[in-house]
Amino acid sequence: MSKKASVIANLSLETAEQFQVLNYGIGGHYETHYDFATNRELSAFEKAIGNRVATFICYLTDVAAGGGTVFPTIGLRLIPKKGSCALWYNLLHSGEGDMRTNHAACPVLTGFKWVCNKWFHERGQEFIRPCKQLESE
Predict the structure, then answer these.
(1) Which residue of 31, 43, 48, 87 sits 20 to 30 Å from the alpha carbon of 120, by its own alpha carbon?
(2) Which residues contact 81 (CB under 8 A, 6 or more apart)?
(3) pTM of this prediction exceeds 0.85
(4) Residues β-bridged to residue 66
(5) CA–CA distance, 69 with 76 (Å, rounded to integer)
């Protein structure tokens, strides 16, 4: 599955994190957050492998009710369907965090949810996804 994520993202696995597998029971949720490190969090991994440039998420189960992933800033909701995956880039080409990627896992209302995430980091992507001053470049 890592190779699939790499191909879809067009990013190297060189500094990608291992898949993180999560289970949410009834009421399980995750508050609104960014997957990239903000300025006050940079020491977490910035020096060694860079910030989280992209997120790849896969839903491992259907969810009877609730459990969606929402992006409130852009008004988007992903509904968990077994075998479906999504990818988003957390950083702009300038290296700044993309504030549109603010997202949350909504509470599971019935049943349970299994999901896995893979995060790709900046280091190792320099020639694949080069830094630009402007997004229009």
Answers:
(1) 31
(2) 59, 62
(3) yes
(4) 108
(5) 8
Which parts of the chain sit beneath pLDDT 70? Answer: 39-47, 127, 130-137
Tokens at residue 105, please? 């896992």
Calculate Rg over the CA atoms of the chain: 15
**Residue-wise burial string across 77-95, b where 16 or more C-beta atoms lie within 10 A, e elsewhere:** ebebeeeebebbbbbbbee
Q: How far apart are CA 11 and CA 26, in angstroms?
A: 35
**What is the token pair recorded at 99?**
């504030």
Q: What is the pLDDT of residues 65-88, one digit of tens each?
A: 999 999 999 999 999 999 999 999
* Distance (Å, whole) CA 124 – CA 16: 9
Q: Give the type of residue at 19.
A: F
Q: Is 120 exposed, middle or buried (0-12, 13-18, 19+ CB in 10 A)?
A: buried
Count of H-run helices and E-run strands, the chain: 2, 10
Question: How far is the C-alpha of 137 from the C-alpha of 135, rounded, in Å?
Answer: 6
